[in-house]
Amino acid sequence: MDKKTNFIKAMTYDYPTEIPVGIHFLPAALKKYPDEILSIVQKYPDLFGDIDDYMYDPNKLAPTYRLGQTVDEWGCVWTNIEEGMEAYVTEHPIKSPQDILDLKIPENRDGRLPHGFMYLRILDLMGFENAMMEFAKESREIQILIDKVVEYNCYQIEVALKEADEIMFFGDDLGMQYGIAIGPERWRKYFKPAYKKMYDLVRKAGKYVYMHTDGMIYEIMPDLVEAGVNMINPQFRANGLDNLVRVCKGKIPIDLDLDRQMFPFATPKEIEEHVKECVEALYLPEGGLALKVEIGVDVPVENIEAVVAAVDKYRFYKG
After folding, report:
1. Which of 12, 18, 72, 203 keeps 20 to 30 A from 285, CA to CA?
2. pLDDT over threshold 90, residue 51
3. Residue 1 pLDDT
4. Contact present, 63 and 69 (Cβ < 8 Å)
5. What is the pLDDT of residue 45?
6. Count of alpha carbons within 13 Å of 174, Cβ hemisphere only?
7. Within 13 A of 154's CA, how many CA atoms are on the CB side?
8. What percent of the chain has pLDDT over 70?
9. Exposed e or buried b for every residue in 101-129, given b needs 16+ CB within 10 A?
10. Which element (helix H / strand E) includes 200?
């Protein structure tokens, strides 16, 4: 069975042959450990596939991973101070409520929906504090801004659907380390309808919706499913294993983001125990579980080897 078919079976509780595994190296990690990572990739061909995807090439970096500044289609200025790491927004185009009313949606229709395409887009446009003030006031303008971003995203989704595979991938970090900044109720008021409008386009086209979202979001995971998400990629550390078991097991398919916050500091044995604990707690033979590994620049080589070996071992877990 090919990887995509197995992944869809896990996503739909259709008895996958193994637990799907995805491993991602941040470009800065590829730059720091080119030979070591290449050796690991070659050792586990079933996990990684084409080795060219794991060779650092500065010419292939996304604009926000390159040194310097770049301006996105909305007019947000992104500043990068270390090649291979993600930039952050240092200039926000919206300074006042009137700027929201004057804002024009971008004209490009290239089908691109970057990470942070909805909720984080509001923060990028306004800045965190200004956005939180507008949500606290429940102002007319914040709803207008959300509607403008949704309108643009719907245009982009319609373009992307023309060449989309069976699964469309979306990413937007809805939580902080210890909760949702605007609270679950305001999130349901402002953002649940927004995501539903966008994801309805995908579902009506017969595609699956996969959504990555960092932060503590277990309270709204059922809402994301109601909005059209087929599989959620939540963080272990921010949500807690007990919450994920209670909310998701047998009910919400997840691609579990293993504890990247422990990878730099744990021993190889602790990493294997972590993977084992997660699989034992969340596994069902019918599916609903995949495993995601993200390797940052601060993870030592022995721990990279440990987590890769652990997911390779436990992807065949059968209870």
Report:
1. 203
2. no
3. 83
4. no
5. 94
6. 28
7. 14
8. 100
9. eebeeeeeeeeebbbbbbbbbbbbbbbee
10. helix 192-204
Average pLDDT over residues 235-245: 98
- Phi (first) and psi of residue 181, to 5 degrees: -55, -40
Angle at alpha carbon of residue 209, lines to 207 and 214, rounded to 5°: 165
CA 117 to chain centre: 11
**Do residues 84 and 26 touch, judged by C-beta distance below 8 A?**
yes
- pLDDT of res. 82: 96
- Which domains can be identified in the chain, with CATH numbers? 3-62+138-145+153-314 (3.20.20.210)
Q: Which residue type sits at 57?
A: D
Q: Decide: 256 and 290 in contact? Cβ < 8 Å.
A: yes
CA dihedral 60, 64, 68, 74 (to 10 degrees): 130
CA distance 114 to 174: 15
Closest CA to 291 of 319, 247, 260, 269: 260
pLDDT tens, residue by residue, 165-199:
999 999 999 999 999 999 999 999 999 999 999 99
Q: If we measure between CA atoms, which residue out of 265, 261, 263, 275 comes closest to residue 310?
A: 275
Q: Provide CB contacts within 8 A for 28, sequence distance 6+.
A: 82, 83, 84, 85, 296, 297
What predicted TM-score, i.e. pTM, was given to this entire model? Answer: 0.97
Would you say 90 and 77 are in contact if contact means Cβ atoms under 8 Å apart?
Answer: yes
